[in-house]
Amino acid sequence: MDKISSDFSKFIQRRIAPLKVTTNLLNDEMTLAKGQEEMILSRVAVESICATLEMFIEDVDELTGGSPASSGGSSSRASSDQQSEKRFEIPKPQGGRIG
């Protein structure tokens, strides 16, 4: 039982890391736009955020045995899976936690 919970914990930690990076990106952008009512994000940043969220949702659906939710962006993401995976490689923290 401990092995299963340890593996599950590693799985979750690995999948949450890109979400933490995404959250930090959005928080930084909001800080830069402080006092402004609107915020501008590049198309690349929005595509990266969407791909990160889609990957997390797909992984959790696969883990829980659920069916993937239909999403307009899924088919475009599927065609560039390898490119997206390379873009979202997170360096391992050295001596600390991410976030």
Molecular structure report:
With 99 residues, this protein is mainly α. It has one domain (2-32, 39-87). The chain has helices at 2-32, 43-64, 74-79, 81-87. The radius of gyration is 16 Å and the shape is elongated. 3% of the residues are buried. The model is unreliable at 71-99 (pLDDT under 50).
The global form is: elongated
> How much of the polypeptide forms β-strand, as a percent range?
under 5%
What is the helix/strand order?
HHHH
Average pLDDT, rounded to a whole number, is 74
Report the radius of gyration as a whole number of Å.
16 Å
Oligomer: single chain
Q: Which structural class fits the helix and strand makeup?
A: mainly alpha
Q: What's the number of domains? A: 1
Question: Can you tell me the residue ranges where pLDDT is under 50 for at least 5 consecutive residues?
Answer: 71-99
Number of strands: 0
Biggest sheet descriptor: none
The percent range for helix content is: 55-70%
Give a quick summary of the entry.
The chain is mainly α.
Question: Topology of this structure?
Answer:
Blueprint: H1 2-32, H2 43-64, H3 74-79, H4 81-87
Salient structural properties:
elongated; disordered C terminus; 0% strand; 99 residues
